[in-house]
Amino acid sequence: MAGEASAEAARKSTQEALGSQETLAALDTPDREPQFPVHGDALAAAFFDLDNTVMQGAALFHFGRGLYKRKFFETRDLVRFAWQQAWFRLAGVEDPEHMQEARDSALSIVQGHRVSELMSIGEEIYDEYMAERIWPGTRALAQAHLDAGQRVWLVTAAPVEIAQVIARRLGLTGALGTVAESVDGVYTGKLVGEPLHGPAKAEAVRALAAAENLDLSRCAAYSDSHNDIPMLSLVGHPYAINPDAKLRKHAHTLDWRLRDYRTGRKAAKVGIPAAAGVGAVAGGTAAAIALHRRRR
Known about the structure:
Layout: H1 2-19, E1 45-48, H2 59-69, H3 75-91, H4 96-110, H5 115-130, H6 136-147, E2 151-159, H7 160-169, E3 174-178, E4 180-183, E5 186-191, H8 199-211, E6 220-223, H9 229-234, E7 237-241, H10 245-254, E8 257-259, H11 282-295
Parallel strand pairs: 1-2, 1-6, 2-3, 6-7, 7-8
Antiparallel strand pairs: 4-5
């Protein structure tokens, strides 16, 4: 099962991640709710979606840019990645067809390469393309949980190796992600189970919570997408971050906390306030569209 595979992969990486956490810069949170997250609650943790929740845009696209720079594939493949990224940013939703195409492209690109090679390259790509695209506000939310002594996990449909790099660089506990099959440390071009998307995320979080003896009613989850409503509904403290239209409506109906960093506007119900500073997304979208037009 996708959830079990992801949970197992995440648990194996936890000890290494705990030993290499980086200290994050202090962020101003003057109106923080004093009772949440609860300090010293060993039964609580936080689960963060990645794309458009923690990071502007799609991690897989940024990873693809880095692989293209290193001659892993041709220009026409980069154009396809760019167009998928432009759609993701303009539409603000996860389109299943685009996700399937991106996943298939990624699997074909990494087939035959060593896992260790991709992990090393992932560290470089994080510095080149991803670090500056982390939402400061969401990072502050994650840090609030860490400061309270709670564990924080990324939960994403992106490859688990990418997710683990990002989690480690942000000082988080670990990551749940889509698991690509490898034999003797070499990618086969197949998946282990299904992509970690939609209900599969909830399954993975539930499996990890059971393994880590967490009480989901005391945990928090954060996402931008209505596809993650199953995961958000699992926990006692769901948050809609940069929500798409369907999630925003659902969150309002259930009185979930909201925060939108794309415009800087205050959400209808604010939980943990975050630091100021909103990154722009227009530049990446324009570049992606320009690439597409250039190839027409």
